[in-house]
Structure to design on (205 residues):
């Protein structure tokens, strides 16, 4: 059974039998909340939902950190830099709308191949051009981050974001970090008003 985490809760990342994890999949998901006008989503929403409506494009990113800080722009894994030079972290591509069930974006981490200098990976999501499009996380529902054992696809832990995030344009979802030789996950859920990946990254430089 996966562990459902609360904000700020930390858990060890181990297989269900207690052995050490080698590879994990980090899945991030969200849905656009129904518009108050009752306009429909999908094809009919695009046709009849009003000319001014634009799908909310959320972008997930991973920041590889040394001593908790980003040292190089190459350590930012996002839709414009899908794979770390070490091959240990891979982003599976950009989802422009959040449509569909399950994960909207996935990031794979090979913990065994990750160079030893890295001690933390921070997972964030921002709304693309949020200010220009007048969009914010209050327009999103069912947002979550989950960690799965990549060997057997078993979900180990999940954190569902359920607070009111009106006017917030980006989110620090959670982090995988090394503590006493053991990888752990911390459910952060910190909403911020940053408008881009680069603004988010500056918080960890």
């Amino acid at each position: 059974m996966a562990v459902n985490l609360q904000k700020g809760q930390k858990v060890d990342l181990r297989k269900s039998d207690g052995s050490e994890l080698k590879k994990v999949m980090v899945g991030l998901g969200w849905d656009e909340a129904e518009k108050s006008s009752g306009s429909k989503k999908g094809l009919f929403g695009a046709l009849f939902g009003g000319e001014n409506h634009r799908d909310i494009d959320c972008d997930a990113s991973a920041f590889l950190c040394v001593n908790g800080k980003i040292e190089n722009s190459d350590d930012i894994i996002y839709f414009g830099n899908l794979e770390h030079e070490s091959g240990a972290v891979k982003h599976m591509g950009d989802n422009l709308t959040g449509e569909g069930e399950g994960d909207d974006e996935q990031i794979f981490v090979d913990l065994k191949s990750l160079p030893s200098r890295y001690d933390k990976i921070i997972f964030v999501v921002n709304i693309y051009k949020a200010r220009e499009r007048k969009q914010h996380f209050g327009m999103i529902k069912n947002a979550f981050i989950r960690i799965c054992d990549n060997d057997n696809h078993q979900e180990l832990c999940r954190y569902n974001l359920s607070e009111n995030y009106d006017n917030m344009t980006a989110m620090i979802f959670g982090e995988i970090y090394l503590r006493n030789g053991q990888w752990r996950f911390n459910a952060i859920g910190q909403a911020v008003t940053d408008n881009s990946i680069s603004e988010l990254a500056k918080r960890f430089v």
Q: What stands out?
A: The first helix runs from residue 42 to 48. The two ends are 36 Å apart (CA to CA).
